[in-house]
Design a protein that fits this description.
Structural class: mainly alpha
Number of domains: 1
Order of helices and strands: HHHHHH
Strand content: under 5%
Distance between the termini: 29 Å
Helix content: 55-70%
Largest sheet: none
Radius of gyration: 20 Å
Number of strands: 0
């Protein structure tokens, strides 16, 4: 089971790294928007690029945050019945959900790769403003983000199958320090 633990540590580490790295995009968005506010309202010289730039940064941020969110079990879930189940019952439900999720994400990944490839092939640019930036790089973020969620989904599926089957393993999340976990998630987990 050491191989499973190493895999889970590596995958959780990748999702954690991506999540923490893209969190810095919020500062870039704030900077772009602050610059636009100053230029527009104080200098009477609005930019032609700030709105689309902030939209692209926000889109990348939201898409790339998916694997981090899944790693921390922070996606919205209805726990009316789920909350009443024991660990193996929850693992059974999770196995079904992560299996279905893997199928849906696989289809979505294929579509996202084709979508990005088409954008690259025509060197697509935006026609939403007179700035007209290239958008094929931002469209490449879509399959990248879906791929990262697929990888984390596989790790979650592995965890749920092992728990469901009663196979003991070392889950690296169980040894995290409480200071590494969001306090709101910690409180929710204790309930």
């Amino acid at each position: 089971m050491k191989g499973v633990t190493r895999y889970l540590v590596a995958q959780d580490g990748l999702s954690e790294f991506v999540g923490r790295a893209i969190s810095w995009l919020t500062l870039a968005m704030i900077g772009v928007l602050m610059l636009e506010i100053v230029a527009r309202y104080f200098l009477n010289a609005p930019t032609i690029w700030a709105h689309e730039t902030s939209t692209m940064l926000y889109g990348a941020f939201c898409m790339l945050a998916g694997s981090y969110t899944l790693r921390h079990r922070s996606h919205v879930r209805s726990e009316v019945i789920y909350g009443l189940l024991g660990p193996r019952g929850k693992a059974f439900c999770d196995t079904i959900i992560f299996t279905l999720g893997l199928i849906v994400l696989g289809i979505f990944f294929k579509m996202a790769v084709e979508f990005a490839a088409q954008s690259w092939s025509v060197r697509e640019y935006s026609n939403k403003s007179i700035w007209q930036p290239v958008i094929y790089p931002i469209k490449t973020v879509i399959p990248l983000a879906v791929g990262l969620v697929i990888l984390q989904n596989i790790a979650e599926l592995l965890r749920s199958v092992l728990v469901m089957l009663g196979i003991p393993f070392d889950d690296p999340r169980e040894t995290e320090h409480e200071t590494d976990i969001d306090p709101e998630l910690l409180e929710a987990a204790k309930k």
